Amino acid sequence: MASIRKSFSFRNGVQVDEDNFIVNANGLVGIGTSVPSEFLDVRGTAKVVGLVTAADVFVSGVATITDIKVGSAISITDGGVAATRFYGDGATLSNLPTSQWEDINLGLGFTSIYAIGNVGIATTDPRQSFQVGGDPSATGKLGVGINSIGNIRASGIITASSFVGAIAGPVTGDVTGDLTGNVTGNTAGHHTGGVTGNINSTGVSTFNSLNATNAVISGIATVGTALSFADLKVATFGNNHELEIKYDKSQGSSGLGGRATIDCSAGELVLSAGGSLNVGQVRIQPNGGEDGINVVHNGQVELYHDNVKRLNTTTTGVRIANDLRVGTPPYTSGFGTVFSALSTGKVGIGTNLSLSDLTIKKPSGTTVEVIAESGVPNLTVGLTGDTKNKGILRFNSEANTLDIINNDTGDLNFILDGDNNSGSGNIKFIDNTTERARITNDGKLGIAITNPAHQLHVVGTSTVTGNAFIGGNLSVGGTISGALSLGNVIEGTNVLTTSGISTFNQVNFTSSVGFGSAIPKVDVDFQTAVASFSGVGIGTTNPGNRLKVVGTSFFDTIGVNTTAVKVDTTHNPGGLQMIAERLYLYDSQLRLDLSRQSKIGFGTAGDTLSGSIDLRKAGGAISPWAFLPEMTTSVRNTKTTAVGQSASGIGTGAVIYNTTTKRVEIYLPDGDTTANVTNWVGIATV
In terms of pTM, does the model score above 0.70? Predict the structure, then answer.
């Protein structure tokens, strides 16, 4: 054998032949394969002599192993399995007798086994022959135990369809179901079945239902559900049976059951609840769960109708829900009612059908009084808030006097026929039985007369110490005694007889009127006076402006923006003079009639004008220049050739200043029948 001690290092694996042995670049080792898929991949039979340690072993085929040991707890040798403990479901295990079980009746046809020791279920320490749970004889243990002589001890409840045989010894738990035979010992539990024998109880006996012909109870009786007495059987209380409670079905109303009576023949009948704790209530209920009368511990008393609270007392009085009616029912007609206060806030006296907030109704002779022993009784109607928002009917503020007062700033109205019923009533002022005055429904005031013929009709002597206004005619049927002095001013006419201004609404003069003249020469003569008018119309009744003249008018001289026209003895200054004003013509034409030698002169005054337009004297003005219309060649051409409504009226001799060519141009056609832009001739400096 060669002895070579040398280390080799191979990169990217090593391979012997093609597939005998290979270590690839990933560190996987293959024997019998060139493509190992695990860290050690052996294709073929492998033999290992020695100990193999692995975390998991997976065999997909048949593994032949002589002896298998799993730790120190499990060993499999020659077909036998030995373990310290077995866990899991053993339902499929068979023919596994143990040292604790033995079949003693082999000929019975089935396997019969018994336990050599005690059998325990849900316990690891059975102390009874058969025990479920803990040992019931031990303190604090819960369970059921059966010993070898048939005694059963249970710490819990035993339930069975029946128990047969005598029961000897004390029974300390509950017994349910029928119990036949005598019970000679003490019973400390509950009896829920019927007892046909006598019961002698020195302690407290509790019955769910007690049906007895005659029950005498000398101690305390506690009734859990109901204490029943037969019809007409009396329950009495007291040494002499002073308090009796009974029920008589025959005394009840038809269809409403019988009558229950509580009769206290002596002393007081007190219904109390809560004791000294002051927390209870006393309730009277006509039906179960339906309140009738409740008396609460705090002193409140409640009355119910159909389980709805209608009345309850409080520390300040009584509160009533919904309606309060006092009277004799039925209340349908209303007259059986003495007083009603409805849930709508309406109050009725003598009726429960109040349509207003307060209604007082009687078949006849209804009377309402607001009186006081002394002082000033008031009846107030108004709004909440300030005192002024009130109207008052007051008596005796002034001794023996009735006042009608409106404290606010509005009117005091006396209204007849407020619902427009075509009434014909009057307002009358009567002293005892004598009528002193009246205001009729058509607005006439009569004093000492019941049928006034005029708006004011006074019978008897009348005195007016102040002024009197008469808007219409004054008719005097008798004689005016004394002097009638009108004075310098006639009141109401604005006519001043001696001085001042008199104002007239309309004046109709049938002859001439002169102002400042003794004898007017025309219908209206202002020759020696000055008149001022807001507007004057001549030939029209609707001037609309200061002066409007309709028709032909002739003026000698007109001055505009001046109070005086200029006068010159050397020449005529003109009939139309405008001072510091301009003359504007809008969509108009100014025409001068050449046949009458009309001319325009600038800067001339009294000079004889030469030509139709004379500008010779205009050179002395601040701006003496005369300017021609300016336009571009494009605009000039457009206006020259325009026709129809847009025609400019171009003609021979028209002069413009062309802003494009910077020259003065004159239109001089050379015989063309239509306007041509080539007919413009320019004048320019060279």
Answer: no
User: Residues 461-514: pLDDT tens digits?
Assistant: 888 888 877 777 777 777 777 666 655 555 555 555 566 666 667 777 888 888
**Run of H or E residues at 259:** strand 259-264
Per-residue pLDDT reduced to its tens digit, 577-595: 888 777 787 878 777 776 6
Q: Is 395 helix (H, G, I), strand (E, B) or coil?
A: strand
CA distance 441 to 427: 8
| Predicted local confidence at residue 101, as pLDDT | 53
| SS3 track for 510-566 | CCCEECCCCCCCCCEECCCCCCCCCCEEECCCCCCCCEEECCCCCCCCEEECCCCCC
Q: How high does pLDDT run on average in the chain? A: 77
Give every CB contact of residue 637 below 8 A, 6+ residues apart in sequence: 677
The conformation of residue 448, written as its DSSP 8-state character, comes to S
In the block, which residue shows the tokens 């320490």? 125
C-alpha 634/C-alpha 677 separation (Å) is: 10
Please name which of 168, 141, 167, 170 lies closest in space to residue 154, comparing C-alpha atoms.
141
Chain centroid to CA 467: how far?
A: 63
Closest C-alpha to 241, from 273, 266, 218: 266
C-alpha to C-alpha distance for 486 and 497, rounded to whole angstroms: 10
* Spatial CB neighbours of 602, under 8 Å, sequence gap ≥ 6: 613, 614, 615, 617, 618, 621
Decide if 658 contacts 631 (C-beta within 8 A).
yes
Burial of 134 (0-12, 13-18, 19+ CB in 10 A): buried
390-395: strand order across its sheet? 378-382, 390-395, 402-406
Helix (H) or strand (E) holding 640: helix 633-641
The DSSP-derived string for 330-398 is --SSSTTEEEEE-TTS-EEES-S---SSEEE--SS--------SSS--EEEEE-SSSTTSEEEEEESSS
CA–CA gap between residue 457 and residue 468 (Å, rounded): 15
Give the C-alpha separation, 409 to 680, whole Å.
Answer: 89
Rounded to the nearest 5°, which phi and psi values hold at 13? 90, 180
CA dist 105 and 107 (Å) reads 6
Q: What order do you get walking across the sheet with 235-237 strand by strand?
A: 235-237, 243-248, 259-264
pLDDT band at 99 (very low <50, low <70, confident <90, very high): very low
Contacts by residues 560-566 (CB-CB < 8 Å, ≥ 24 positions apart): none
Q: What is the pLDDT of residue 440?
A: 92
CB atoms near residue 391 (< 10 Å): 16
How far is 428 from 414, CA to CA, in rounded Å? 11
How many percent of the chain have pLDDT more than 70? Answer: 75
Query: CA-to-CA distance for 558 and 581, rounded, in angstroms?
Result: 13
Q: What is the pLDDT of residues 330-369, one digit of tens each?
A: 665 556 677 777 878 788 887 877 778 888 888 888 888 8
Residues 6+ apart with CB under 8 A from 211: 228
Q: Where are the domains of the chain?
A: 1-44, 96-149, 229-265, 371-413, 424-460, 630-683
| DSSP 3-state of 646 | helix
How far CA 444 is from CA of 433, 436, 463, 477, in Å, comes to 22, 14, 20, 20
Q: Which residues contact 311 (CB under 8 A, 6 or more apart)?
A: 301, 302, 303, 318, 319, 320, 321
Which one, of 282, 661, 234, lies nearest residue 677 by Cα? Answer: 661
Say whether pLDDT at 643 is over 80: yes
Q: What is the CA radius of gyration of the chain?
A: 70
Query: Do 651 and 628 meet the contact criterion of CB atoms below 8 Å apart?
Result: no
Q: How many residues would you count in the chain?
A: 686
